[in-house]
DUF4365 domain-containing protein (Pseudoduganella violacea), 260 residues
Amino acid sequence: MDTTGWDFFVEFAFSPNVTRSPFSLHEAALECKIQVKATDKRDRKCAISLANLRRLVTAPVPTFFIFIEFNEMEAPQRVFLKHVDSALCSRALSRIHEAEASDKGDRLHKMTMTVRYGDTDALSEVSGAALAAALRGHIGESMAEYSERKRAHLEQAGFEEGSATVCITVEGEENIANFINATMGIESGVPVSEIVAHHKRFGKTASRPFIEEAGGVIEFVRTEPDHQGVLTISADNLRGHLSCRGLICPDTSIGGKSTI
């Protein structure tokens, strides 16, 4: 199944804690997806296509890479288990977003990202028991809790500095004064020359705006803040021109951090 990012789908037996307690009767057995890479090299890195990484990163179940070093021997010499954790998820999503922002989203299968592994990922021995213990250690006791942590991280990742940028252009000294007054609740509608807004993630702005208006009227119907953000105002003294760049921050309900 390597075409969809994974080679093996591993299912564990139900934990004894689940089968003995009525309060955990509904808990699912542990399961995960694994992509296996074999090598004779010892540089401990591998280029993975962004298309495959996207499959592994966005899967609701735990996902892993297994790197098997043969070192030119017939039998495996060392085995490394690389967890697709929150840090790796964020790296991959950032690269994918960068590609899509550059209109290369249809070429993810031809683009790669280097995944590194090291001694901290090595199994204690080359055996199925060591692999099972390492997998359980990463996943934990509850599939539901793991999946929820992963879902929450994927929704938050890259929005730490806001989810969009908005540029509002106001021309003319009177309109500029009215705009400033409107932000304080003194004025209502203010004519604007241009409004352009782009989605933003991982500090990278999307190539296409989701709002692009040549002119209109902006109204501040409420002056109480719904979100926190940054507003930069620059004035052109020669033209009587005001540009405002706002940063829209995500809802604080998803503002926390979690680890998977």
In short: Residues 86-101 form the longest helix (16 residues). Residues 251-259 have pLDDT under 50 and may be disordered.
